[in-house]
């Protein structure tokens, strides 16, 4: 059976278009070919890559028998960053084992033990803001997100190793957001180690320095286990599979780097958009403040996380500009029927989050920011899928939404913010995510005297 229609330009041109202008590429294809279209976007000799925006088809992909697809082999671009044992690189039983070991530390009661620390980190970072001066909210959200990962996930406390790792990770994460730098992960022929002066050689050297610090932390924590600690690394050190086996040092390192690389800039970008939309539509800010006001100056994190309008604001922000444009690609292993099409082995199937979230049949007036959508309707996992879906959904989804709500609420409790941008704010590429363009700036005014004293250095 023939594949769905799609662009006929050479595969290299399609690949470059997707890498450099992914939103524009996807929107043009959807406008011309509809909900489902075939591309060639994986380099010189790309296999067919089929994108899906229809929730019915997406649901079929998410619920198809696991044996029909290979998943880890499609994420090769992340391998140099996350390592071979990363959850996103594995298939079958190995993937299921790692997922079961990781899951408890990022959900339920365990996740809620991190709430106060997230709020404290947020107050500490925003306490450095200069009042009445325009600033980039993304930079602050990136700093909060990185500190949350180092403190909550790695379980590190400020000190020499903490500062060294923080600086190295900041440099790496900022580099990865550059289109020129990140292109070497998409094109293997660019991965030439010609010494520290070459792009790939510099990356490998940087990675070695990061690994040395991460492995040192793992070794120290193995030799001095503190049962009172409740960070993710401590929980993973004690986690055991059904055979009584724990994670090796490499498995721990790879999972920590995966949580860092896929959870840092994504959360920071989503928060940046939340602040943009809240201050773009004053009625949304007014309703959000009315919900927050009764909780006082330092609200309980659990009460914040349960607020319905705060939750709706965060979900609508994730809908309109999701954390990632696509869910994890699936490589067909055995013939599979999705909708009216049967796909042969070797074909890559991609549930497209961005297109599903912009589908007018599901979300009337999809370009408009309307949090009430999530107050009046419950969307299926194939209609609202900011963290992917099926067996390969993001393992940190619950934690990311939880962090997002706490950070947004904490900032709005401490400050009145005023947007100060000229012209239209557009999505700007920042690594694997999109952020409000540089015109978007905010100015802060303290809402109570305690914050004013912090800003004044008292």
Describe this structure in words.
- The protein has 458 residues and is α+β, with helices and mostly antiparallel strands.
- The chain has one domain: Cytochrome p450 (Orthogonal Bundle).
- The chain is built from 20 helices and eleven strands.
- The protein has a five-stranded mixed beta sheet, with helices on both faces.
- The radius of gyration is 22 Å and the shape is globular.
- It starts with 10 loop residues before the first helix and ends with a helix.
- The relative contact order is 0.16.
Brief digest:
The protein is an alpha+beta fold. It is built from 20 helices and 11 strands.
Characteristic terms for this protein:
alpha+beta; Cytochrome p450; 20 helices; Cytochrome_P450_monoxygenase; 458 residues; oxidoreductase activity, acting on paired donors, with incorporation or reduction of molecular oxygen; oxidoreductase; Cyt_P450_E_grp-IV; heme
């Amino acid at each position: 059976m023939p594949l769905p229609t799609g662009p006929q330009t050479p595969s290299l041109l399609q690949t470059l278009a997707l890498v450099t202008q992914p939103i524009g590429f996807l929107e043009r294809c959807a406008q011309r070919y509809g909900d489902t279209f075939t591309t060639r976007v994986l380099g010189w000799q790309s296999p067919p890559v089929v994108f899906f925006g229809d929730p019915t088809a997406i649901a079929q992909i998410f619920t198809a028998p696991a044996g029909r697809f290979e998943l880890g082999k499609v994420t090769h671009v992340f391998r140099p960053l996350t390592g071979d044992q990363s959850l996103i690189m594995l298939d079958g039983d190995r993937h299921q084992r790692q997922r079961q070991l990781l899951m408890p530390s990022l959900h339920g009661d365990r996740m809620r033990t991190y709430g106060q620390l997230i709020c404290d980190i947020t107050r500490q970072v925003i306490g450095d803001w200069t009042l009445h001066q325009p600033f980039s909210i993304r930079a602050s959200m990136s700093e909060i997100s990185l500190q949350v990962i180092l403190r909550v996930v790695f379980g590190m406390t400020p000190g020499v190793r903490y500062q060294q790792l923080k600086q190295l990770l900041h440099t790496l994460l900022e580099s990865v957001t550059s289109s020129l730098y990140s292109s070497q992960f998409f094109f293997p022929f660019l991965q030439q180690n010609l010494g520290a002066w070459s792009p790939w050689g510099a990356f490998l050297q940087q990675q070695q320095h990061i690994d040395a610090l991460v492995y040192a932390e793992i070794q120290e924590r193995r030799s001095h286990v503190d049962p009172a600690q409740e960070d993710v690394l401590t929980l993973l050190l004690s986690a055991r599979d059904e055979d009584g086996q724990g994670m090796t040092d490499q498995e721990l390192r790879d999972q920590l780097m995966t949580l860092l690389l896929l959870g840092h800039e994504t959360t920071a970008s989503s928060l940046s958009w939340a602040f943009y939309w809240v201050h773009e539509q004053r009625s949304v800010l007014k309703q959000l403040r009315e919900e927050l006001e009764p909780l006082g100056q330092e609200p309980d994190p659990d009460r914040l996380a349960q607020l319905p309008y705060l939750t709706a604001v965060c979900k609508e922000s994730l809908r309109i500009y999701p954390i990632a444009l696509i869910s994890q690609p699936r490589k067909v292993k055995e013939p599979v029927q999705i909708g009216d099409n049967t796909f042969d082995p070797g074909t890559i199937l991609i549930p497209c989050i961005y297109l599903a979230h912009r589908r007018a049949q599901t979300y009337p007036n999809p370009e408009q920011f309307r949090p009430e959508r999530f107050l009046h309707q419950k969307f299926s996992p194939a209609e609202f899928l900011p963290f992917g879906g099926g067996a390969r959904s993001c393992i940190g989804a619950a934690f990311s939404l939880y962090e997002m709500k706490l950070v947004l609420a904490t900032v709005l409790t401490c400050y009145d913010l005023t947007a100060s941008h000229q012209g239209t704010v557009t999505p700007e590429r920042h690594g694997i995510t999109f952020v409000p363009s540089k015109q978007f700036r905010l100015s802060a005014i303290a809402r109570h005297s305690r914050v004013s004293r912090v800003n004044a250095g008292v």
